Amino acid sequence: MKNRITSLFNIEFPIIQAGMIWCSGWELASAVSNAGGLGIIGSGSMYPEILDDQIAKCKLATTKPFAVNLPMLYPDIDKHIATIIKHKVPIVFTSAGNPKTWTKHLKEHGIIVVHVVSSLKFAKKSEEAGVDAVVAEGFEAGGHNGRDETTTLCLIPMVAEEVNIPIIAAGGIGTGEAMLAAMNLGADAVQIGSRFVASIESSAHQNFKNVVVSSKEGDTQLAMKNITPVRLVKNEFYLRVEQAYQEGASVEEIKELLGRGRAKKGMFEGDLLEGELEIGQVSGLIHEIKPASEIIDEIVKDFRMAIEAQKSEKFQF
Ligand code: NDP
To answer: Do residues 19 and 123 share a domain?
Structure first.
């Protein structure tokens, strides 16, 4: 497959594995890159020395391009940027912040910069800031999410209508059929998170992987919209937060209830009751934990079959 994204990243398939805190370390990123996609190390949950070690291990595990996801609200971002430059990481996906802040600096070091957005407004701002591509992520996505609740089905064509740089669709995509749909809407590639959480190589706790593959439609919900909107599994912690809102809790009270390190507790330590379990709506379609290479192969195969299926009678009218 050759298009603007495969050429930009020098990869075989336009399939990007999302950078996900506590779930995407070097094992997953290198496995995805080795299978022809673009693997991403999620640096938001890594102390500076951990990221340094993770990048070094990724470079040993693959000769293919890989990226680092850099959430801009990360407290030690300067250190992460220095590490990325030191290791000559070829691609950075920035998220959760202003794309103007670091794009110029990263590009001066020859790094390809992609910014993650959840609205048309920020897609346009990202293009103005000089990024090479945008990830447009719809409401279906797991974890941190936009406030406007724009779904992938609406967001991708809206961004495609007004933005000229390559577009990577995210949110609700876990299959080859969904990949084809997103590309028909105007995307050049897809970014997939939830499906790779349920991979052998993901650093998520086994308990969390088991939750992902047993999730059904309706098991996740967007929470804490007035703080940082985040899509979570409706576990005990989520229900407590919802009850607090119903009882009129203030922002401070919700923040106190949230405390620190909830995401680590849930996704990395496997505390299914008390932790934050960040996953997308598409988890209802994920039934098996597989090696990352099998996931990529299956998505590519289903994508090609979906193209063939469009020649069937159903589409002739
Ligand atoms: P909390 O404030 O609840 O906890 C911070 C967590 O991050 C702890 O578990 C801590 O690990 C870990 N950590 C890693 N590096 C550092 C550091 N330099 N200083 C402090 N803590 C660090 O945050 P969350 O768990 O909700 O989020 C963690 C991170 O995820 C955020 O800092 C942010 O970078 C990222 N994030 C990314 C988003 C995005 O891309 N859209 C959205 C939201 C968050 P330990 O427990 O071992 O101390």
So the answer is: yes
